[in-house]
Amino acid sequence: MALRSHATINMKICLKLLTVVCFSVLIKGEYQLKDLEFNFKQGDPPPRIFTAEQIAEYDGSDPKKPIYMAVKGVVFDVSKGINFYGKGASYNALVGKDSSRGVAKMSLEPEDLTHDISGLEPDVLKALDDVFQGTYMAKYPVVGYMDYILDKYHDKFVQLKEKVEL
Ligand code: HEM
């Protein structure tokens, strides 16, 4: 009798644990990275398209050049954050490239200084969207886009080009 009730209690605990695990998986779910919005106005200079080599020229090593960094393929002029991003500053490793993975993971490890965000957990992807919107879009001017997002946003780029050139 004592054995049976022991087994029943164990089973109940297991069921409870299973419910908790299922519930947290449901809550966590998948996270769909937000699509980019293109908010250029008529008369704005046409956005520049950067290759990896081109953006690398703006890594803060030349004080006469602005400092550029890309997140989610959007290139920002982060020159006013020179204390973060200038030569020798804490986050200098992030600039002159698209460091989306590092920004998402809050990592400055060389292997994370890339635009490749494959395999990241939903909460890390959400963090990337939050920093993209809350820091970069809020603080720094957009100066262009990385060439590798051209395919995905081809139609939007065509509309954008027509709009700024009207
Ligand atoms: C001990 C670890 C860290 C501390 C104490 C720290 C602290 C801070 C603080 C206080 C700020 C806000 C500064 C301000 O707005 O005036 C900041 C901003 C920031 N941190 Fe960190 N941080 C750490 C590590 C990292 C790492 C590993 C990354 C890697 C990506 C990172 C990326 C950033 C970025 C991108 C900003 C925004 C800079 C901007 O406004 O342009 N941080 N950090």
Automatic annotation (TrEMBL):
Q: Name one GO cellular component term.
A: endoplasmic reticulum
Keywords (alphabetical) are:
Endoplasmic reticulum, Heme, Iron, Metal-binding, Signal
Q: Which SUPFAM superfamilies match?
A: Cytochrome b5-like heme/steroid binding domain (SSF55856)
- Tell me the ranges covered by the Cytochrome b5 heme-binding domain, including all copies: 50-147
Tell me the protein's name. Answer: Cytochrome b5 heme-binding domain-containing protein
Signal sequence range? 1-29
Localization annotation: Endoplasmic reticulum
One molecular function GO term is:
metal ion binding
InterPro entries, from UniProt? Answer: Cyt_B5-like_heme/steroid-bd, Cyt_B5-like_heme/steroid_sf, MAPR/NEUFC/NENF-like
A UniProt-annotated Pfam family: Cyt-b5
